[in-house]
Write a structure and sequence with these properties.
The chain has 76 residues and is of the alpha+beta class. The chain has a domain of 38 residues. It is built from 2 helices and 4 strands. The longest helix has 10 residues. The two termini are 19 Å apart.
């Protein structure tokens, strides 16, 4: 997923709510054809609802080291 990302936000060492806040701020800066890759240490279930309500689509994968990678983009 890293190859598809235009911007990467590594929030693995951050405590809530900082990853959520920084993700929403980063999403305000991406263009219609850009993608944000969010790296976390756990799956952010509340974030998915916020993404849905704000018109974003996403794909989630867990890497072998336990990192949760979430690729986020604007819905067409």
């Amino acid at each position: 997923m890293r190859a598809e990302a235009d911007k990467i936000l590594d929030a693995r060492l951050m405590e809530p709510p900082e990853p959520f806040v920084l993700t929403m701020e980063a999403l305000d800066t991406i263009g219609a054809d850009e993608k944000l890759l969010l790296l976390l240490s756990r799956e952010p279930h509340p974030l998915y609802r916020a993404l849905e309500l704000n018109g974003f689509a996403w794909q989630t994968e867990r890497t072998p080291d336990g990192t949760v990678e979430i690729l986020i983009w604007h819905k067409p």
